[in-house]
């Protein structure tokens, strides 16, 4: 079975069939929607995919965090098929369908936002969820501004592109919406030289206070939006002591704390959400946005908040035609059931232990491996030219990504400087596949660092 297979490359990449399709892609699609991987999928199972030429790849990208329960889970297929035989669509503003209600009830049960009575709405993508969360926060607080962070990625709509830090994602599409202000994220590996972790956290909190002084007075701030682990920013986790301090600032000033768990959610951190760790530390967010692995690949996203926040939103501000589509809700309910039954949060920690040990060994062995970080098995490995200067080494990462693909392992870069390899492997990967992937990646590092 494909789900138990190991990587196997039979042809030069891309193979002849894949090359033909990739050539057609160039003619039919915008060049701006880029793909640098030399394969065209024909089928996928678990953590593995087979391309149209019969080459088999181990996927450590997982649709950029979408496939936490893997490709083609048979129960997911059955759930979507069963729903499709009843009806594809029912818009919740017109006809109530129970799948939306069931999923909202389940999300209200498992999502760790501040408050006892919770409510959930659904949209179609992570960007839509983030944009709705901002609208909800503004409507509830009656304030116009939000604060986001360096390194942030929140989407590609006009609002979320303005929230996103890396302007390569928004080059030439301004002017951007007003009322979005940026503070410095606590990127501890690149904090001021000589600072202890405690001193660095205090430094970054001071930077946040500067925004109130220099950009938006605190009384005009509706929300602070944080990724618990920055995704595109390089898999940089928010230190819990910093989160506690931000929570205190929010509580003292009537600001809502929004956790963007679009990429971090659904088991990857070792808990269903990174905000579970926040909750245990007494700093749960007010609003959580989720997407990616929520429905195993069927487009769906969610915004969850306590009842009083949603009840403070004016009618007509939120909603949409496809939000909470019946097929997506059926898929999401099954995803959560599978995750809970198969203990995928625990499996995430098992995978993390294996990978962290190996990654840290590389850090000791290779001058170019500067930092290893993450929460659970949402892990990043940062590459530098040397450990003293910490100069970002984007070329090495680019070479490693291509070399690994040639041997059947798909990995992806990230980071402000494009010098981080991120680990987003499906949580159903086998130990044998994991070991094979680690061997391929290390061999790619050895090969490319000598170029």
From TrEMBL:
InterPro entries: Aminotrans_3, Aminotrans_3_PPA_site, Class-III_PLP-dep_AT, PyrdxlP-dep_Trfase, PyrdxlP-dep_Trfase_major, PyrdxlP-dep_Trfase_small
Domain of life: Bacteria
Family annotation (SUPFAM superfamilies): PLP-dependent transferases
Entry EC no(s): 2.6.1.19, 2.6.1.22
Pathway of action: Amino-acid degradation; 4-aminobutanoate degradation
Presence of keyword Transferase: yes
Catalytic activity field: (S)-3-amino-2-methylpropanoate + 2-oxoglutarate = 2-methyl-3-oxopropanoate + L-glutamate; 4-aminobutanoate + 2-oxoglutarate = succinate semialdehyde + L-glutamate
Record carries keyword Amino-acid biosynthesis: no
EC class of the enzyme, as a word: transferase
Keyword terms of this UniProt record: Aminotransferase, Pyridoxal phosphate, Transferase
Pfam family, one: Aminotran_3
Gene Ontology molecular function: (S)-3-amino-2-methylpropionate transaminase activity; 4-aminobutyrate:2-oxoglutarate transaminase activity; identical protein binding; pyridoxal phosphate binding
Cofactor entry: pyridoxal 5'-phosphate
Protein family according to the UniProt entry: Belongs to the class-III pyridoxal-phosphate-dependent aminotransferase family.
Protein name: (S)-3-amino-2-methylpropionate transaminase
């Amino acid at each position: 079975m494909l789900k138990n297979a190991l990587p196997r490359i039979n042809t030069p990449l891309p193979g002849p069939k894949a090359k033909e399709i990739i050539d057609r892609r160039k003619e039919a699609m915008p060049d701006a929607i880029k793909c640098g991987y030399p394969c065209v999928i024909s089928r996928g199972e678990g953590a593995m995919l087979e391309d149209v030429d019969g080459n088999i790849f181990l996927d450590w990208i997982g649709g950029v965090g979408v496939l936490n329960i893997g490709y083609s889970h048979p129960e997911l297929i059955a759930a979507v098929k069963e729903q499709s035989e009843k009806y594809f669509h029912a818009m919740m503003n017109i006809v109530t369908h129970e799948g939306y209600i069931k999923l909202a009830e389940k999300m209200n049960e498992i999502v760790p936002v501040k408050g006892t009575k919770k409510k959930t709405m659904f949209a179609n993508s992570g960007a839509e969820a983030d944009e709705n969360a901002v609208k909800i926060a503004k409507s509830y607080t009656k304030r116009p501004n939000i604060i986001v962070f360096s390194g942030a990625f929140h989407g590609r709509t006009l609002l979320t592109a303005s929230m996103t830090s890396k302007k390569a994602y928004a080059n030439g599409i301004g002017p951007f919406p007003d009322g979005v202000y940026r503070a410095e994220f606590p990127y501890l590996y690149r904090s001021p030289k000589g600072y202890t972790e405690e001193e660095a956290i205090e430094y970054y909190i001071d930077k946040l206070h500067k925004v109130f002084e220099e950009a938006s007075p605190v009384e005009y701030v509706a929300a602070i939006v944080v990724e618990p682990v920055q995704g595109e920013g390089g898999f940089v986790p928010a230190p819990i002591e910093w989160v506690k301090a931000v929570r205190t600032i929010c509580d003292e000033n009537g600001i809502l704390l929004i956790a963007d768990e679009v990429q971090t959610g659904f088991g990857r951190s070792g808990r269903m959400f990174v905000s579970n760790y926040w909750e245990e530390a007494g700093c749960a967010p007010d609003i959580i946005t989720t997407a990616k692995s929520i429905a195993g690949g069927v487009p769906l996203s969610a915004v969850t908040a306590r009842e009083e926040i949603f009840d403070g939103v004016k009618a007509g501000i939120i909603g949409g035609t496809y939000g909470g589509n019946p097929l997506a809700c059926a898929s999401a309910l099954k995803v959560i059931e599978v995750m809970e039954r198969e203990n995928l949060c625990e499996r995430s920690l098992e995978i993390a232990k294996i990978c962290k040990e190996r990654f840290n060994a590389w850090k000791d062995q290779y001058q170019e491996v500067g930092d290893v970080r993450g929460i659970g098995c949402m892990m990043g490995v940062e590459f530098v030219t040397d450990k003293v200067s910490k100069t970002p080494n984007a070329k090495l990462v680019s070479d490693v990504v291509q070399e690994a693909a040639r041997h059947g392992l798909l990995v992806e870069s990230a980071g402000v400087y494009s010098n981080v390899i991120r680990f987003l492997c499906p949580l159903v990967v086998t130990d044998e596949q994991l070991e094979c992937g680690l061997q391929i990646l290390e061999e790619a590092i050895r090969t490319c660092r000598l170029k």
